[in-house]
Amino acid sequence: MGTFTINTQTNPKQFDIVITDCVSSDFIGTTALGIYMIENNILTFSGNEPGATIRPTNFTEGGRVFILTKQQ
Fold first, then answer.
1. What would you measure as the largest C-alpha separation in the chain, in angstroms?
2. pLDDT tens across 35-47, in order?
3. CB-based burial of residue 58 (10 Å sphere; 0-12 exposed, 13-18 middle, 19+ buried)?
4. Nearest by Cα to 20 from 50, 40, 55
5. Which end of the chain, N or C, is more open, meaning fewer C-beta atoms within 10 Å of its C-beta?
6. Residue 22 contacts residue 49 (beta carbons within 8 Å)
7. What is the pTM of this model?
8. Which residues pair with 47 in a beta bridge?
9. Residue 23: burial class (beta carbons within 10 Å; 0-12, 13-18, 19+)
10. What is the DSSP string of 14-45?
């Protein structure tokens, strides 16, 4: 669980998540940095481990990538 902040003025768009609850208690209070894009019915996002100080710059290098498709 966490508190999300997004920045839509960048390309790709960015998000920060301050972790408020997690099974790994070491992550509580840390921030995960990531990027996202929404195209058609697909949300693609990439982020690094909470506490990492580097944000991914694209969806092919760096952090884990997740692709979610909205079902009709």
1. 38
2. 999 999 999 999 9
3. exposed
4. 50
5. C
6. no
7. 0.87
8. 34, 64
9. exposed
10. EEEEEE---SSGGGTT-EEEEEEEEETTEEEE
